[in-house]
Every structure is written in structure tokens, then in C-alpha cells.
Write a structure and sequence with these properties.
Length: about 210
Amino acid sequence: MDALILVDLQNDFMPGGALAVEEGDKVVPIANQFISLFKYVILTQDWHPQDHQSFASQHKGKEVGELIQLEGLDQVLWPDHCVQGSPGAEFHKDLNLQKKHVVFQKGTQRKIDSYSGFFDNGHNQATGLEKWLKDEGITGLIVMGLATDYCVKFTVLDALEAGFKVTLITDACRGVDLQPGDVEAALQEMEAKGAKLTDSSRWFGEYR
Ligand code: VGL
Ligand code: ZN
């Protein structure tokens, strides 16, 4: 059995949002097509306390995009985004969720970021997603969302490590590309570690 995983399709990652990913909203109509195909639809939700230490605003003299050490891990500093309960943390209003989805939240601990939907960046605490999927007998994951070079990438890598068969729908992903080439490198790394990269046209034809 396969499940669909929609990574961080939240307002703050959409054009106009606090951590806008270019063309992030282009993913939404493709996600809607896939939602109607799957019994199991998982949404990951970046869900930070307002003083989350991945926010540049929490570090005097530091700017967005700078790299710091946080609890011994490399941490890119981001604009304040996806603050718990804020409109920016809500899912895009055009997502047609049909009420069959399950949400897994991440990034809730102040001192550690969590790009993956499975674990925090230190791999210390599980979100419960792996257990949930395995309890349901799910062996394959179809993954898409934002951002290719952060939350999509780390979700896919953890999924592979957990033993799931992973298919990434590349045209339903968009990335940050903080350094030009990051998105391409992320795609290559996911493929090299065993993810199958494919295109939504394989499911839905070329009419778009
Ligand atoms: C993300 C940076 C910070 C993502 C989340 O969804 O890819 N990126 N928080
Ligand atoms: Zn975040």
C-alpha cells in the first residue's frame, strides 16, 4: 500500500509568504490531483514556537541565510516563519483535502530544527510518522512539496532509511536554492540514495 506525503504546503512557503519559495503555489493543483487518487494522505506541517532558534531574529547581529551552530548542529538562519497558530503556518487554502488527511507537525522544539517529517535534525525525536505508516501497512511513499532542498530532501532521505520505497514527483516540488545548484544537488542525492524521480505527467498525461 502506498501513501501520499505532501511536504509543508503552508502559506509562509508560498509567494508572498515569510519564507517564500518561488512558484511554490504551482505545486498545489498537482497535489490536488494526487489527493483524489490516494486513500492515505499525509501532510507535514512546519510548526515553530515564536522564539524558535532557527529564526535569525533570535540571534542578535545575525542575518537570514547565515549559518550558525545550534546545539552542535549546523543551522541556517531563516526569517520568522510557520509560527504556531499564525496564518502563515496554515495550509494553502486551495488544497482540496477531502478530510481524509493526517497531519504530522515538526519543528516544535525551540532549540532544534526539523526539516524531515520523520525526525528532528539531530535524529533524537521521532514525529510518529514512521510508526503510523508502518502500523497502517504502508510500504511505498509518493512525495512532493516544499522545499526540495530542505524539508522534501530530508523527509525523503529519512523515508529511504526507514525502508520505504520512495517516489518523488519532481514537477510538484520547488526549492529555495540558497546557493544556486542546491535543488539539483538535492535531487541527485535523493536519487542516488534510492528515490525514484518521476513527473506527474506519468499519472495524469501531458495536458497541463
Ligand atoms: C523549510 C526551511 C525552514 C522547508 C522549513 O519546508 O523546506 N525550510 N523551515
Ligand atoms: Zn521551518
